[in-house]
Amino acid sequence: MNILISWLGKTDIDNMQANEPASIATLATKHSIIFDHIIILANTWEEHWDSYEKWLKKRLAVLHRPANVEIKNQSLNSPTDYQAVAAIMQKNLQALCRVENQVYINLTSGTPAMTAVSVLLGKGIYECHFLQSARDNTIEDVRIPFDFDATYAKAALSSISAKVVAGPKLSAAFDDMVSVSEAMQAVKHKAQRLAMTDLPALILGETGTGKEVLATAIHGASNRSAKPLKTVNCGALPENLVDSILFGHVKGAFTGANNDHAGLFEQANGGTLFLDEIGELTPAVQVKLLRALQQGEITRVGDSKTRQVDVRIIAATHRHLTEMVAEGTFREDLFYRIAVGVVELPALRNRTADIPELVKQIMAEINAVFAKLPEYKCKKISNPAIGFIKEQSWPGNIRALWNALNRAVLWADNTELSGADIQNALVETVKTTENTAVVPELVAGFDIQQYIDGIKENIVKAALGKTAGNKSKAAKLLGLANHQTLTNWMKQLHIDTEN
Length: 499
What we know:
Helix content is 44%, strand content 13%. The protein is an alpha/beta fold. It folds into four domains: 2-142, Rossmann fold, CATH 3.40.50.10770; 174-346, P-loop containing nucleotide triphosphate hydrolases (Rossmann fold, 3-Layer(aba) Sandwich); 350-425, Helicase, Ruva Protein, domain 3 (Orthogonal Bundle); 448-492. The chain has a six-stranded mixed β-sheet, with helices on both faces. The protein has a five-stranded parallel β-sheet with strand order 8-9-12-7-13. Helix 4 crosses helix 5 and helix 15 (383-391) crosses helix 17 (419-425). InterPro entries: AAA+_ATPase, AAA_lid_NorR, Homeodomain-like_sf, P-loop_NTPase, Sigma_54_int, Sigma_54_int_dom_ATP-bd_2.
């Protein structure tokens, strides 16, 4: 099948109104190749699309040529936005360029950005043919005079050779990341390799291990570093506003929507969107997010137009997503969409070799802040204090260490912090998962069976009361196999069994 694809140009519309052919009509009606399908990409002059389609179909019908013409609406904020134009062209060419099709691209209609992108994609990836027309309606088959693959390979080889001679150079984005320990060296190595790609990333680790710091470093070392990095805490997304926050809204979409608003996907276009604590997303929000990631486009609340977005996703969570997938609380398809480049940050207790350097960094930050206070004297930390820090488990990790050092600097009178100063600055936390059951006083004559029977009697009576005396329901509530077991218990405990 021969397919002609073209952007719709202003000249095409103007000449149609004068019943004269411009580029698209000239190629469709005069080229020696008869096109089975003509696809016209358009994002403006919508009021003329129907008229143009009917006009072109009529001219083709007169010439007994196939009149299979389709104008496709493409969401494009600016016709000179190279990234958006490339996303649209790639999506269309990927769908069209199959073995059985010969795809021809019109280079005359549209903006220079559209022409440049068409050449790059059509020649470099999809092996398309190129056509253009002149003002006098003459037609030219365009030959691109070089091989992109060979040219790129030669340039890449030259670049690699130059870098080998110059020696390795780590991205400055990772310079401040403490990695004395082997565990953090492995993390840093993975993150640097990941930064060189556009793959989605998933950062795992306990609360306070520095997941946002790592995400920022990956973005800063990537080819997207000149574009925005936007961050959202998924656990703080109100479900009734999630569409507006992520995808934006148009004026009047809902009460209080007084202006058009670009959501985080649009704000991060060309850059990176960091989805912190993605494991906290509700199932409904997971569906909406998955749709945006799969299609590479979003629709603002209250709008009918879709918008192309080019966003790299970095997600993070302290939760076990694989367990959540097994439990059905996290979508499996969303998990595999984000879990491509997976990096797990170690807990602070597993990277004690990094603690001296981390403390040094944190103390420098704290002193810089406290220096603004009158009569403040810069404080340092003693080696015994660092030794004490290394012995702690730090369940809150780096964040907990940062807080403890802040408190120690605030409360200590001396300029050198001791181990006692750090100990006094610690805040003990109570783990709610621990068994807090009350144990009775164990004295001589204590009867454990009587104690257990008392507990059992109270629970059985509570179950019967909750089920209005229905034994079957009470047995099910207690996790018993059948109501007969419950009846036997009641006889043993001398509970009325007549109901």
